[in-house]
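Usage

Read records sequentially. Each one opens with the input sequence:
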Amino acid sequence: MADLQRVVDELAARLDRPLLLEDRVQKVVVYSEQSGAMDDVRRDSILRRRTSPEVRGWLRDAGIHEAARPLRIPGAPHLGLLPRVCVPVRHADGLLGFLWFIDAEPPMPKSRVAEAAAAAPALALALFHESLASGLASHRELEAVTGLLLGEPDAARQLIEAGAFPQARPVTVQVARPVAAEPDDALRLALEQGLLALRRRLGGHHPLHLVRYDHAVLLTAGQPVPGDELHAVMPVPVVVGVGRPRDTLAGAAESYREALHAAEVTARVPGLGRTAEWARLGVYRMLTQLPDQELHPGLEGLIGDAQHLTLLETLETYLDLAGSAVATSRALRLHRTSLYYRLQRVEQLARTDLKDGGERLALHLSLKLARLSGRYSPRNSPASSS
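and closes with the structure output:
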């Protein structure tokens, strides 16, 4: 509720007009400080937490349940109702609630109505948080899971004591990160919607979740949710990272760090697929700890020049296949003579010697690091993780 109250108070201050937020059955959820014009309906709504059946019927007939945009509603003196602006709070086709402004003394300018409508996604997200069904009240669960992922020592105990997670079960953390989308309230709401749908089907896994500004976190008891199932419930395309299981809920922060790491690598290296387990990232587990400027000096010029992409792809495949010319020729469908020519060109341009094991290692790691940083994007070759 604190999140909703903050959003409503900030919006009321920006618009310089008191407001009231109801859920989809017109039960009052939260309201700002009331000043200015006040009618009997607003007063009764605040005191009784909902409007009378007669007023609800009047507003329903005015079309509030079908409205997709802000709606101006005329006054009804016989009901003690001043004119109003109703801003429906929706996500996709789902009605979540109504934002109400008294439209009198003076009426709201169109620019202020548009600003109120622009705030609807943030309110929808906050309403979703309030509607969570779990052993804890939604805001308490949110705080506890946030603390758990930050490594706070009491968070696991709070969740276990509240019955939100079994004491004797291991925990696995998964992170879903949107692909090619800028973080905003609409994106967070989409992630929330997907995880809520999944939680309804995962009762036996004792799921918990948290949505952050650019990714979503799912915690389950025991084994992780299959990646395909997590992808299927998400309204937006995502990549998924999976941390290793931990014996107790108190270890969730470590699994979370691994899952976040795996999701970041998967987002940067498309060849790894849509889902990646931290335990199977291979060399990429280490490379994210290195600065992307630390490349083999001979590769700097090649990586920055598109005409050398074929040479880099050939070199990477050759190194991925342990320096086997036979396997590389087969993988690239390339004649052995052409392969040797390309490798010789790499040696000349990069001022290196592929017979030197240290040079091969430095070149191989540099190519993987360049992949991870986005400076090198091969066209069709798979991304080796070993």
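Summary fields computed downstream for this record:
- The chain has 16 helices and ten strands.
- The beta strands are 20-23, 28-31, 71-73, 84-91, 94-102, 171-178, 208-211, 216-221, 238-242, 275-277.
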